[in-house]
Specification:
AldOxase/xan_DH_MoCoBD1, Aldehyde Oxidoreductase, domain 4, binds dioxothiomolybdenum(VI) ion, Xanthine dehydrogenase family protein molybdopterin-binding subunit, 31 strands, seven-stranded mixed β-sheet
Length: 732
């Protein structure tokens, strides 16, 4: 089904099941520990051996020699495979770093060997017995030091496209020079780790030349394609199964060393192999959110209207890497006739930087929305009013191109009202409760709404049950549930009559879970398949599908009523389709919006910040399930607090690695850090986005939160911190 005209009234609009805050259908499996995560698939292949991955102990250079004799002779060892045993493997289409093979070391903890043994302990012990002789080379590990060597780039420049440029509208420099009120400030955001609960883990088994991997991956079709490419085998020979993913946040978008080395280890040992990347490998072996250095300049008239806005961002990555697109929201969030955005990319020899929850906007809003607060202060304007004054209903870089929906002003007004914004002291440091300096902060939230083609297969059985199959993943987001809700709504059956099967590469290719496109796009794919099934049902029953209604397990047309299952016959009835998107995404700017409000207390003596209250008001199209959507947003708000106050991969700039590579050293907020969170969804439908009229929301929740925290800290203390996270030493 091609979606290329705005959605009109359709079966989803009944909202009997969709739009209801139903519990997760996979909830009991998860809370009882019965949901099979990758490492726990004990039943899928007999005789599983254990793999353990050894990471390189240098940041840059090559391996001169490896001695595996002692490791191979160690108890229980079945196979030792080193990176010197094969040439450098091709990397997947989506990978920046090479995953295995050859003597060259691109980054610290790059996989250099896998040991397969009868037990986990034997594999780990033997890996420690491998002797490696390295030749170190000097590496580029310091982003600021590499700034002069950075190259202008663009997000989609790819290799050799030559598209890198500054984007300019009007004459920024002239307008900025003339503006009576200006800000020119530089901010830094650190490298951050996805730090999801479930590590990267895979069980791999070969049957002849056919490979099956039970793994943890957000994008099944990409993973399958890239695994085949890396191993040099046809994609048809690979099956990838990822029905439950214990968190990803972007860290599991692409193929990683666990899948490659489980497959290679299994082939070498002649046994199925299970392996998980040890927690310390996750920071340096896989991927992270890259650090940025961002310069923002804003000029405004005394009336508060922005006349000039510039945002330049520097980030680093391995050769052939991509920039952190931290300027993307600045192209779209506020009006202003004269504009400049630019990204620069430095080559670094640190581990691969790549997408982490709301790549681009999360670190971009961390700085832009603090800059907006600084401007409001200079203008002596309320920061809510300053943002509202500079709202725009059209894409500021493409006049006349409208947003499909844009309710930022309502988000801010409603948030201010609910949060009690009028109680905020206009002057910083103006509110003290005992030892606590108390302040409130606001930020706009913005995240683009991306749409992706997505397929599904639906089967109707004689009992009126519906089974949905798609390779969509559930990374803790609620995919199982919203897909079941969609099929139930479309086919007119109660939720209990729907079974959902996800994550298997033998199912139709879906949008996958990434970029907050998964919820809207994957359910739209199910919608398309169900439309086809409805037609097939009508045909079998000999009624006109346009006149048929599907309600309460029955098909009704004119004065005919038939149980839905009757159309299934003995063999069942199957329909498969795929939603594809036309040019609506180009004709309209599709984005999601939020108003984030935060109250903090800062200890006047120690500088410790405690978040006291948080509120997010979100405008993100139709909310398919307010309960799972709320969970997404409060999780994202929590992550935003992490970005503001705690999260930072500490770079060892001499040796080139992230030092705090575990959950003891990499701090994230816990429940005690987050006393009270509220989420409000505006009642919105977006007929431009899909037949579901929904949009993404899982990444919107983090966008702007960190800045709201930083702005609240400034309101509490008068201290403006531009280098994140705001640890207490920066407030003293
Ligand atoms: Mo998201 S960073 O595209 O999983």
């Amino acid at each position: 089904m091609k979606f290329d005209t705005p959605a009109t009234t359709n079966p989803i609009d009944q909202l009997k099941v969709v739009g209801k805050p139903v519990d997760r259908i996979d909830g009991p499996l998860k809370t009882t520990g019965m949901a099979p995560y990758a490492y726990e698939r004990h039943d899928v292949a007999p005789d599983q051996a254990y793999g353990h991955v050894l990471g390189a102990g240098i940041g840059k250079g090559r391996i001169a020699a490896m001695d595996t004799a002692v490791a191979k002779a160690a108890p229980g060892v079945l196979a030792v495979l080193t990176t010197l045993d094969m040439p450098r493997l091709e990397k997947g289409q989506m990978n920046t770093a090479f995953l295995f093979g050859g003597a060259d070391i691109q980054h610290y903890h790059q996989a250099i060997a896998v040991v397969v043994a009868e037990t986990f302990e034997q594999a780990r012990d033997a890996a420690a017995m491998i002797q490696v002789r390295y030749v170190r080379e000097p590496g580029r590990f310091d982003l600021a030091a590499e700034a002069p060597n950075a190259k202008l780039t663009s997000a989609d420049s790819g290799e050799g496209s030559g598209a890198a440029h500054e984007e300019r509208i009007g004459d920024f420099e002239a307008a900025f020079a003339q503006a009576p009120v200006t800000l020119d400030a530089t901010y830094t955001t650190p490298d951050e780790s996805h730090a999801m609960m479930e590590p990267h883990a895979t069980i791999a088994a070969w049957e002849g030349d056919r490979l099956t991997v039970w793994t943890s991956n957000q994008m099944v079709a990409w993973g399958r394609r890239d695994l085949a490419k890396t191993l040099g085998i046809p994609a048809e020979k690979v099956r990838l199964d990822s029905p439950f993913v214990g968190g990803g946040f972007g860290g599991k978008l692409f193929l990683r060393a666990d899948a490659v080395l489980a497959a290679l280890g299994a082939r070498t040992a002649g046994r199925p192999v299970k392996l998980a990347l040890a927690r310390p490998l996750m920071a340096n072996n896989t991927t992270h959110r890259p650090a940025t250095i961002q310069r923002i300049r804003i000029g405004a008239g005394r009336d508060g209207r922005i006349t000039a806005i510039a945002h330049e961002s520097l980030s680093g990555d391995l050769p052939d890497g991509q920039p952190e697109t931290a300027v993307s929201q600045t192209k779209l969030l506020y009006a202003g006739a004269n504009r400049l955005t630019a990204m620069r990319l430095a080559v670094l020899d640190l581990p691969e930087g790549n997408a982490m929850r709301a790549p681009g906007e999360a670190p971009g809003l961390m700085t832009l929305e603090v800059a907006m607060d600084e401007m409001a202060e200079r203008l002596e304007m309320d920061p809510v009013e300053f943002r509202i004054l500079n709202d725009t209903q059209e894409d500021p870089e493409h006049p006349g191109r409208r947003f499909s929906q844009r309710q930022l002003v309502r988000c801010l007004r409603e948030g201010a009202e609910r949060f009690g914004w009028n109680r905020r002291a206009a002057k910083p440091g103006g509110h003290r409760e005992g030892r606590w300096l108390v302040g409130m902060g606001v930020a706009a939230g913005f995240r683009n709404n991306l749409v992706m083609a997505s397929g599904a297969r639906v089967r109707l059985d004689g009992g009126g049950g519906v089974t949905v199959e798609t390779d969509m993943t559930d990374i803790g987001t609620g995919s199982y549930t919203i897909i079941a809700q969609t099929a139930a709504e479309m086919m007119g059956v109660p939720l209990e009559k729907v079974a959902v099967r996800l994550g298997d590469s033998s199912f139709p290719v879906s949008a996958g879970s990434g970029g907050q496109w998964g919820g809207n796009s994957s359910t739209a794919g199910v919608y398309a398949a169900c439309m086809k099934l409805r037609e097939a049902v009508a045909q079998r029953l000999g009624v006109n599908s346009a006149e048929a209604s599907f309600v309460d397990g029955e098909v009704r047309a004119g004065n005919r009523v038939a149980p839905l299952g009757q159309a299934a016959g003995v063999d069942g009835l199957v329909a498969e389709d795929r939603i594809e998107y036309g040019d609506l995404a180009k004709r309209y700017q599709q984005s999601t919006f939020a108003g984030h409000f935060v109250e903090v207390g800062v200890d006047a003596a120690t500088g410790e910040t405690r978040v006291r209250r948080m509120l997010a008001v979100c405008a993100a199209g139709r909310i398919l399930n307010p309960k799972s959507a709320r969970s997404q947003v409060i999780g994202a708000m929590t992550m935003g607090v992490g970005a503001a106050l705690m999260e930072e991969l500490a770079v060892d700039k001499r040796h080139g690695f992230f030092v705090n590579h575990d959950l003891a050293g990499y701090e994230v907020p816990v429940h005690a850090d987050i006393p009270h969170q509220d989420v409000v969804f505006l009642d919105e439908v977006d007929p431009i986005s899909s037949p579901m009229k929904a949009k993404g929301v899982g990444e919107l929740g983090i966008c702007g939160v960190g800045a709201a925290v930083a702005n609240a800290i400034h309101n509490a203390t008068g201290v403006r911190v531009r280098d994140y996270p705001i640890t207490l030493d920066k407030l003293l």
